[in-house]
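Please decode residue identities from the backbone states below.
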């Protein structure tokens, strides 16, 4: 039996603009993880994936080409030069909330890839994991930027520009985020399509907003690398204002973000595709409990506190 895991993620800054070639930063969330376990199956039973949280069982020999988990498993087996359906049982579990911008689909696939490599006695490099997971992201999300597969494959903060190799970087000082679910499902595919449609009506206005986002993403990286994460607070606020202009926030997200700021967060914004999903708030040791409590009291159904720090990919 072998097992592997991969973290959840949140986008720190730069969502949506990243689809148009600007940089974004995403960070792993190790408080939530996806796990894959591979055990040998009885001879002749083929390769069967049990996605327990989805309540689904997928026989690799029978699954269609549009089934993301099967697509990733097939691509990984081909990469390893293994038979198309070895007699293996794969169990997938995850504590990462689904449809909330935390990269649950990508993380489950990354855990699956890493577990298949482990079963074959190999250790994949993160770039290979990222490439293999991207195939599933295309099925889940249409035309994804690739940020989710990158951050869950590397397990480190990632500076990401579409079409360029991702840059993994290290926080000079740890910083803490409160991640709160708005209670509305995130609608990444729809909000990406909506931004595309609106941009077509006024490209210069949208390009200006995207450039403004790019500048604050650059400033955010500097703050993290130079060990002054408190500077992220105003950058979060600025980014959220621009995401409101792009039309991807909701009244509920805006209300919860105001609650977080009033409770002592140094800044807050929606995170991910918007239309619902998560918000993130920058906190410190003193403000974290108050912000968490205020968000729960205001109706956020789930709140996670995570610290982003320099850490290697932990062993499963
Ligand atoms: O909702 P999430 O975390 O999957 O993030 C979507 C980020 C976007 O920039 C809106 C889309 C993308 O593919 O990068």
């Amino acid at each position: 039996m072998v097992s592997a895991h991969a973290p959840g993620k949140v986008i720190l800054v730069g969502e949506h603009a990243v689809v148009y070639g600007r940089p974004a930063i995403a960070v792993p969330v190790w408080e939530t993880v996806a796990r894959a376990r591979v055990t040998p199956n009885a001879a002749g039973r083929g390769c069967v994936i049990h996605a327990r949280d989805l309540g689904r069982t997928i026989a690799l020999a029978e699954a269609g080409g549009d089934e993301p988990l099967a697509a990733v498993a097939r691509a990984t087996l081909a990469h390893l030069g293994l038979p198309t359906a070895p007699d293996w049982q794969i169990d997938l579990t995850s504590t990462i909330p689904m449809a909330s911008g935390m990269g649950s689909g990508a993380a489950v696939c990354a855990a699956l890839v890493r577990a298949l490599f482990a079963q074959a006695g190999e250790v994949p490099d993160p770039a290979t994991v990222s490439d293999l997971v991207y195939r599933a992201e295309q099925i889940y999300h249409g035309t994804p930027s690739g940020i989710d597969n990158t951050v869950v494959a590397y397990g480190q903060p990632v500076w990401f520009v579409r079409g360029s190799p991702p840059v993994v970087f290290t926080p000079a000082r740890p910083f803490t985020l409160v991640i709160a679910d708005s209670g509305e499902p995130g609608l990444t595919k729809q909000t990406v399509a909506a931004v595309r449609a609106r941009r077509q009506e006024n490209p210069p206005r949208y390009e200006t907003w995207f450039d403004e986002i790019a500048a604050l993403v650059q400033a955010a990286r500097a703050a993290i690398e130079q060990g002054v994460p408190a500077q992220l607070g105003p950058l979060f606020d600025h980014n959220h204002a621009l995401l409101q202009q792009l039309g991807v926030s909701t009244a509920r997200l805006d209300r919860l973000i105001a609650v977080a700021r009033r409770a002592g967060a140094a800044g807050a914004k929606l995170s991910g595709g918007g239309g619902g999903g998560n918000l993130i708030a920058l906190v410190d040791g003193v403000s974290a409990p108050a912000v968490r409590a205020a968000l729960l009291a205001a109706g956020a159904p789930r709140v996670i506190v995570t610290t982003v720090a320099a850490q290697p990919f932990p062993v499963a």
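Observation: Residues 11, 15-16, 18-19, 101, 144-145, 147-148, 186, 188, 192, 272-273, 277 surround PMV (CB under 6 Å).
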